Structures are given as structure tokens and as C-alpha cells.
Amino acid sequence: MTGWLLLTAGLWPSTAWSQDEGGADVTAQMMPRVSRSLLLDITRTDAGRFVAVGERGHILYSDTGDDWTQANEVPSRATLTSVAAAGDRLWAAGHDTDILASDDGGESWALLYRDIERQQPVLDLHFFDEANGMAVGAYGLAMFTTDGGETWDERVVSADEWHLNAILDRGNGRLLVAGEAGVSYASDDGGTTWVDIPMPYPGSMFGALQAAGCTWLFGLRGHVQRRCDDEGDWEEPATDTVATLLGGLADDGRLVLVGNSGTLLHGGNGKPFRVVHHSSGVDFSAIVQAGEGRYLLTGEGGVHHYPERDAP
């Protein structure tokens, strides 16, 4: 496995990650060790349930973070790259522009949208509430829904059709989308109009967070960029890592970022970033809080714990 596995799984179409030939209706296969398969995103519902998604349409759920159950009859075998929760509902999305929804905590799923021919995988999905949501993805894909995902309207965020990698909801209609080639995008009207934001680093950003009064973006080769004033300049704090950063969360003003080669990065609350290496050494793509100072990570090899647990 290379450090680019998660990036290629997220972006590029492949028969291993798409539906059967002809796009016939298919369901994800039930697998005995699915919790150790490639999982690309994870969320936690208001009720406290963890839901993770990944390759071949795999969706797993757990009430503890320890014992995982594979959702049955998932109507997709595409790689699922993103999962989102709002109220009592869940949504998942990924390759083939598949968008699925669940009303029972992730145990069963319905297909809401699919467009195999466009070859634009969804790379991030966000719901503001149970009705209103947004999806972004490869080659400028940007879609909005006002009916819980039943129908989607396309909008132009990037006129250059750069990949749109992550959505940040800053509240009060203010949105930010992390993009590639040193450009991200901002909207102050709920996504109706957008402006380009040239970034100091010319590479791709894969995530965006709000913490400690600042907006943060992170991505290729360990680069982190922040702005603490909407009218101010973007800054690049030192991170002491060149590992690509793919996922993160804000925990009480502090950032915890994850990425390639088992890298975890702590900081952002007025202190320098600190690099920690998970002993698995795998590429991580997402992180969710599991308790005070405890986290679940997803990526190669499925679900991992941090801090690490003693081997049996």
C-alpha cells in the first residue's frame, strides 16, 4: 500500500469500486471481516451511534466503537467516501455519484441518487438539517438538496472544475469548500454564490475546520493554513510533518488531524503542533470523538483506536 491509496480510492473511478457492468441494481456483499476493510469516513449520530463507510458499499455501525455490524441490503457496491448525520437521519455518498439515506441509525439504506456516466465521485457530504444538504466532489461537482436528498440541484462552485474535497459550515449561511491547486471557495449566502480564495500553499487541501476562533484548512504534505479574521491573510503554521493530512476534528479548541503513515497532529490552540505516530502505520482518512480524550480513526485496516489499546 502507498501513501496515496486513500486519495486514489477517493477520486479515481475503477471497476473495483463501481457498480456491476451496466449499472444494474446491486447490493453490497456481506463480508466476515468487513471492520478491517478500507473505511474512508466515520460519523457519530445524536443518539451516540458510530457509522463508518468505505470500499465496495460497506457500511458499518456500532453503539460502542468496539463491536461493529455490517448494514444489510446496502444498494451499492461503489466506494463510499463520506457519511453525514442530522437529527434522526444518515446519508452516505461516494463513487458513481451514489447518495444513500438511512432512517434507522444506519441499519438499512435506500438509494436516493446515482449517475454512473458522469464519473464524478462525491468526496464530501454535509447536511445542515434533515432537509437541507450539500455534496461536493471531483471535477467541480456541487449539488444541493432541500428535501432530504430526494432531489438534487447542481450549482457552480469552481468554474475551473477543480476537485472539491471538503465542506465547512461556518454558520449563518457562511460556507467554505476546500479545493485543489491552491484554491478554496467561500459563500456568504448559503451556497448561492461563491468566490475563489487563493491560498498561500499551491497544493490541495482535503479538510476544513473551525476552532479557537479561526478557520483551518489542511492537506498535502502536512500543510496547514489558518485565518483568524475574515478580512485577514492566511498563515501557515509549522507542522513538522510532510505526511498528507486527510481528516480531522476540533476538540475543545484543539485540532486533531490524521493522515498518511499513521500520522496524528495535535495543536491549534495557541500551542505548536505536535506529531504522534500510530503504531499501525496505516493511512488514516477520518476521525471522530469516542469519549473524553478518546478517538476512532478510519482508513486502511478499518477502524482503529487512539490512544491505542494494548495488544491482546
From TrEMBL:
InterPro entries: PSII_CF48-like_dom, WD40/YVTN_repeat-like_dom_sf. The keyword Disulfide bond does not apply. The keyword Mitochondrion does not apply. One of its GO terms (biological process) is photosynthesis. One of its GO terms (cellular component) is photosystem II. Keywords: Photosynthesis, Photosystem II. Residues 116-203 form the Photosynthesis system II assembly factor Ycf48/Hcf136-like domain. It comes from the Bacteria. This is Photosynthesis system II assembly factor Ycf48/Hcf136-like domain-containing protein.
